[in-house]
Amino acid sequence: MLIIQYILKFLFKILFRFRIYNQASVNRPGPLLLVPNHVSWFDWLLIAVCLDEDWKFVTATATARYSWLHRLVTANKRTFPIDPASPYAVKHMAEFLRNGGRLVLFAEGRISRTGSLMKLFEGVGFLLHKTGTPVVTAYLRGAKRLMLVRHKGWRRVFPEVTIHFSRIHTPPELGPLPTSKARTKLTNWLQRSMVEQQFNVEMEFIDNNTLNAVRHTAKYLPKKTVLEDITGQTLTYRRLLLSVDLMSSAITEYIPAGERHIGVLLPNLSATPITVMSLWALRKVPAILNFSLGIRSMSDCAQLAGLKFVITSRSFLERSGLSVDAMAKTGIEFLYLEDIRRGISGYQKLMTALGLKRGAKLKPNEDRDETAVILFTSGSEGAPKGVKLSHKNILSNIQQLLPMIDVQDDERMFNALPVFHSFGFTLGTFVPLVRGLYVFMYPSPLHYKMVPLHLYDKSSTIFLATNTFLNGYARKAHPYDFRTLRFLFAGAEKLQESTARTWASKFGVRILEGYGVTECSPTISVNTPLQPRFGSAGQLLPGIEFKIEPEEGISDGGRLLVRGANVMQGYLNPGADHKFKTLGGWYDTGDVARVDDDGFLYIIGRLKRFAKISGEMISLALVEKTLSRAFSEFGGKFEIAVLNVPDKRKGEMLVAFTNEPRLSIDEIRHAIKERGLSNLCFPRQLVLLKTIPKLGTGKFDYRRLQDILSQQNNTQNK
Fold it and tell me: pTM of this prediction?
C-alpha cells in the first residue's frame, strides 16, 4: 500500500505540482475526524495518499448500488459505509471514534455545485456534540479546476493542486444546551473554521499587487469578456491588459517619473479601471476624486493628496456639468483621455497586440504593502479624509469575501456604485476582475428607471446598492427586471425593514446586508445565503478581530474596533493618522455595535449620531428608523433625517428634516410616543425641504443639513 501511495504522490507531483502542507496534523493517533472541502471526484484519492492505512472514509451505502466501479470505491477496507437516512448512522460513527478510530468525513454530503464551500449537514455537529472528537479541516486548493467536477465553470487538464491540513481543533464547550441547538452551533463552528482556513491559505498565495492578481486570472481566461460599459464597449482579459499596456506607455509622455500621486476624475466606465491599472503599472498611486462632493471639496482633497496631475475626460466633464477651472487655477494640470488616446499610434497598437512592445509591468517581487489607491471618505459628518489602501489591503478583503459566498464562474455583476467609493471600487470593480467574473459598469446609481432596464438586459446575477438607491429602483422597476439575480448586497447605510419587505414581495429577491468602511477596504461583515440573519449586518469576515469598548450612557453595545489585513495603511490627514497609529493596528469605526454569540454584527448607530439629552444617550438612527416605519404610508419617496444641535436647557435637542409637506411635528411626537420611545426622542423642530441632500453613495449629507439649519436660524434671528 505504501508503494502505491508513493507512486501516486509522484504522479500527482508531475501532473498537478501536488504539495502537502502540515501533514503532521493527521499523523497523530485517534480519535480524530478529518473534514475536507469537496469539489471533485478525485478528492478522496488526493486525501488518501496523505493518510495512514487505518484511516477510513465515510461513504453512503446507497452509492455502492450504482455500478461495480462505485462498489469498488465505496465499499472496501478503507471505507466506513453508512446509511445517511438511518438514525443509527451517527451512533456507529461515534462508537468508531470513541474506540480511537480516525475518520474522513465530507461534511457537505455532495460534490460542490459551485466550486465553493456549500452547507455542512448538521449530522457532523451532532457527531461532535456526542463525542467531542478533535477535528482537522483540509482545504484542497485548486482541485475545483480538475476536469471531473460538478460545477459549470472553467477547468484545466493539469491544474495546480495543493492540500492544506489545519491545526487540530477542539470543539468548543457549550454547556447545558439542548441537543438541537448544540448541533447547530457546532456545525456553524466547523463551517466557520473551514472558511477561516481557506482565507488563511489563500493569503499565503496572494499576488504582490492587484494588477498582477488580475494578470494571474487573465492567464487562464484570456478570451473571456470581463468588462463592459454603457458605451457598448466590451473587453476580454486580453484586450483589457493590452489597453493597460498601451495607456501606461502613453501616460509616461505626460507625467514626470517622480510624480507619485495622480488624481483620477472619471465615472463608471471601462476607462476607469484601465486608468487605475495603468497607473499601477507605472508604480503610481491613483487618488480617486469624489465628484459628487463638489469642486470645493474636490480641491481640498486634491490639495491633501498633493496632486499636480488629474486624469479625466472632456466628454464626462461636459455631460456632468463639472467645471474644473477653479482647480486648474491652483496649479493642477488636467490630462484628458481623449488626448492620451490620440497620442497612441497605430504602430504602437500593432506592436503591443503582437507582444513586441509592452507597457510598464509590475515585477512579482514588488512590495504588496505599497499604497495602491487613495480614496476619500464621504464627509457626511465632517471634512473628507484621505485613506491610503495598500495592495495587500485590497487583495485581503477580496479573499475575505470569496470563501463566504458561493460565487460561480459565470456570475454577471452589475456595478452602478461610483468607483470613487470603496464599495464600488473593491467589490464592484476589482472583486470581479480578480475572481474572473463579468462586470457591467453603469455611470450613475441615480438613474432609477434605467438601472433596472440595463440590469435586466445584461442578465445580471450580482447587484450592489444602498438602501436609498434600492427604494428608487423599486419605484420604477418592473417585477421581472431582477429575475436573474442571485445576490443583492446592500451596504453604505442601514437597510430599512420596509425596503427589504418591498423587494421580497415585489421582486422575490432577498437583500443581503453588509457593513464596511473605506478604512477597511471596505467590507467588515456580510450576510450570505448560507447564513443570513435579517436585522444584522452579517457575520464578521474571516481574519478580522474585533473588540467592543464600553461607552458612557450606552448600555446595549459599545464602540466597535476592528483589526485585520484589510485595515488601511493610514490617513493623509496628519491628525487623524496620528490618532490611528496610536491604536496599534486597531481601527476605531466610530460606530456603536454589538456582536452576538454566533458572530453576527449589529450596528446600533454612529457614535457621532448619538445625542446626549438630559444625560441620556439617544440614537438618532433609531429615531430615524422609527419615524420611517411609522409614516411608511407616504410611499417610497418619503424621507426623514434627524440631527442633534446644542440646547441650553438639556444639553442637546433633536431637529427633524423631511420632504413630506403633510407631516407635522405633533404627528411625529405622537408616533414616537406610540412606539414606546422616551420623550427625550421628541424632535423640537421640523424643517421641510423639497429634497433632502445626499452624497454620491445615497447617504444623507448631514453636514449640508447642518449648514441649511444654520442659514435658516441666522435668517430668523435677523
Answer: 0.87
